[in-house]
Write a structure and sequence with these properties.
The protein is an alpha/beta fold. The chain folds into three domains: about 45 residues, Orthogonal Bundle (434 Repressor (Amino-terminal Domain)); about 140 residues, Response regulator (Rossmann fold, 3-Layer(aba) Sandwich), CATH 3.40.50; about 130 residues, Response regulator (Rossmann fold). It contains twelve helices and 14 strands. The strands form three sheets. It has a six-stranded parallel β-sheet with strand order 4-3-5-6-7-13, sandwiched between helices. Strands 9-8-10-11-12-14 form a six-stranded mixed β-sheet, with helices on both faces. A hairpin with a 4-residue loop joins strand 1 and strand 2. This is Transcriptional regulator. Keywords: DNA-binding, Transcription, Transcription regulation.
Length: about 375
């Protein structure tokens, strides 16, 4: 027994109270956070006994446990993440790996992930990569693993699924975003049980192209995102498949870098071509640049040229010509990723499935029937 009946704390098992006014207890600490040693001194037990109480071990008497817990409350001692992990097996922290960017999409989904994690009682530890090479992504995953995260959301383009599966081995992981064909929602190729939460990127291309063809345009020109991005390749595939379905000619693809500047540069080329009457841009930012280029060349939107973007960023509704676009809800996507990851962490024996979300066409003023006005 680590303490005797002569202990300065008298415990009443009927009233569940403890008289802390007796001698032998130091006053509350000031100027620093209390430590486990402080708790041990306060409760007149050994640090090892405090450790056993904090870790939830059963080889401690109820009276001793009560003394330690009262000392913890009195001093305001906070169990560290390591101590909590020893008790629960979880640090209550989720890792989120992102690509360094100030884009609206990243801010929206990270904010949604953080809010969703807090609702589940978790914190988010975020790390960002400047390179999406498999080696850099795997190193960042290992860094988050060393921080003791319970699971990880990988919100960067994934080019080597097998390498990712190896890096995240034994760690619940969710791949966020990308094309439905890139990271199959039912898991990675090696059967490790990691899953994807994504928007159907091909469907984005289909919705945009179907809308423009339905307005009477002979074909649709496409300003795509970088060819190394699954989002871009998925949208381009949907665009091409829709043109083929309707027997329409497929114009050459112009490739941008997601920015308004690249949209303006490529839009300047398209604006010179009278045969161009409909454009699908793979992002709203590129669409904004295209709108500016068309205006600069005296092409009216939507009377001469209809333009559709993708994402539905907040500015889309307030552009000089309100932009018709295909919405992907980054907030819903971020929330779904965290919900799935928490379920994987807390119910590892349960069968889990990825999430494939549908995009939505949002009609505004930048599209109209061909030759309208």
């Amino acid at each position: 027994m680590p303490w005797a009946s002569s202990s300065p704390c008298s415990v009443s098992t009927t009233a569940d109270t403890c008289d802390m006014s007796a001698s032998g207890f130091s006053p509350p600490l000031t100027g620093r956070a209390p430590t486990m040693a402080d708790v041990a001194k306060r409760a007149a037990v050994s640090p090892q006994t405090v450790s056993r109480v904090v870790r939830g071990q059963t080889n401690v008497s109820e009276v001793t446990r009560l003394k330690v817990e009262l000392a913890i409350d009195e001093l305001g001692y906070r169990r560290t993440g390591i101590a909590r992990a020893l008790v629960t097996g979880h640090t209550m922290t989720l890792g989120v790996l992102t690509q360094g960017s100030v884009a609206y999409s990243r801010a929206a989904y990270v904010d949604a992930m953080t809010s969703a994690a807090r609702r589940h009682g978790y914190y988010v530890a975020a790390a960002s990569v400047t390179s999406t090479a498999p080696e850099a992504v795997c190193q960042s995953i290992e860094h988050l693993r060393q921080q003791g995260v319970d699971g990880i959301v990988v919100a960067v383009p994934v080019y080597d699924v097998d390498a990712l599966a190896q890096a995240a081995r034994g760690l619940p992981a969710v791949v966020f975003g990308g094309s439905s064909s890139e990271a199959v929602p039912d898991g990675f190729s090696d059967g490790t049980g990691h899953h994807a939460v994504c928007i159907d990127q091909e469907r984005i291309g289909v919705l945009a192209t179907e809308h423009l063809l339905g307005l009477g345009h002979d074909t649709v020109w496409h300003v795509a995102g970088p060819s190394t991005w699954a989002d871009a390749s998925g949208r381009q595939a949907g665009w091409a498949a829709t043109l083929a379905k309707h027997g329409r000619p497929e114009p050459p693809v112009l490739i941008g870098d997601w920015s308004a500047e690249s949209g303006w540069r490529l839009g300047t080329l398209l604006a010179r071509m009278e045969e161009v009457t409909a454009i699908f841009a793979a992002s709203d930012d590129m669409a904004f640049g295209i709108l500016r280029a068309l205006v600069d060349r005296g092409r009216r939107v939507p009377e001469d040229v209809s333009v559709v973007g993708a994402d539905d960023v907040p500015l889309a509704a307030f552009a000089p010509v309100a932009l018709t676009t295909v919405r992907q809800s980054f907030q819903d996507l971020g929330t779904a990723a965290i919900d799935l990851l928490v379920d994987m962490v807390e119910r590892p024996d349960r069968e889990h499935h990825g999430v494939l979300m549908e995009p939505e066409l949002v009609l505004r003023s930048s599209t109209a029937p061909r030759h309208a006005g």
